[in-house]
Amino acid sequence: MVSNELQAALDAAEAAAEVIRAHYGRGIGVRIKPDTSPVTEADELAEKTIRTVLSARFPAFGFYGEESGQHGMDAEAIWIVDPIDGTKCFVRDIPFFSTQIALWRGGRPVLGVSSAPVFGELAWAEERSGAFLNGRPIRVSSIADLAQATVSTGNIKAIARSPAWLGMGRLVDLAYSTRGYGDFVHYHLLARGALEVVIESDLSIYDFAALTVIIREAGGTVTDLEGEELTLNSKSVLATNGPMHAAVCAMLSSQAHS
What we know:
Shape: globular
Number of domains: 2
Strand order of the largest sheet: 4-3-5-6-7-8-9-10
Number of strands: 15
Helix content: 25-40%
Distance between the termini: 49 Å
C-alpha cells in the first residue's frame, strides 16, 4: 500500500509522461533561460499538469517547480518538482531525462518519484517504506572497498574549479571504474546495486530531492559534497551505498584541500 501523497505523486508523474511522450522527438523549439539552461513547451506543460494533479488533492501544500518557481513555501509540506530533468537530452532525442517529484516536510524530502517515461524506468520511495524500481524492491550494493567500486559523475564543473579537484583525481585513480551516466540514470543504478558512488555539483534541490529519498530507502547515504545534510539551498550531491561514504566525502571536501 502507498500513501495518498505518494499515489498523487505517481499519478502526477504519469500525467506528465503523457505530455512528454507527445512532444518527444518532435523537434520542438527551445528557449534559453537567464541561467543559460534550456526550456521547452514540454517542460512548461508537464509542470502545469503535475501542479494541477497535486494541487487538486492537496491544496494546502506548497509547490516549488523548476519552471514556475516557489509558491506557498511556508506550508506544512511542499511539493518539489522538475518536470523534465535532463532537458538537454530531451531536445536531442536522448532518452536520459526524467520527471522528478518529491514531497518536502520537516526540513527533509519524505517521498520521491523518479519517472523516465521514454527510458522505461519508474522509481519511487517513501520514508520507512523501502524503494522500488518498476514495481520491484531495490537495494544498494554491499561493496565496502573503493577498489571494487564504480563511481559515476554528473555535472562536476564546480568541483573542477575548486581545490577538491585534486581529491577527485585521487578518487578516480583508486576506484575500480568510473563512468558518467548522469541525470536520473546513475541514481537508479546506485539504488539497485549496480554502482556505488554518485557525484554531482551545480544542481538545484528539484534535481535530486526525489532521488535522495529513493537512495536512502534503498539503504544508501546522501549528503552534499561537504558531508552536510541536504537543504532547499544545497547545490551538490554525494550519494553512495553507505560503507565508503565518509572516505569519499573526505577526499572531495573542499575544506580538506584548501
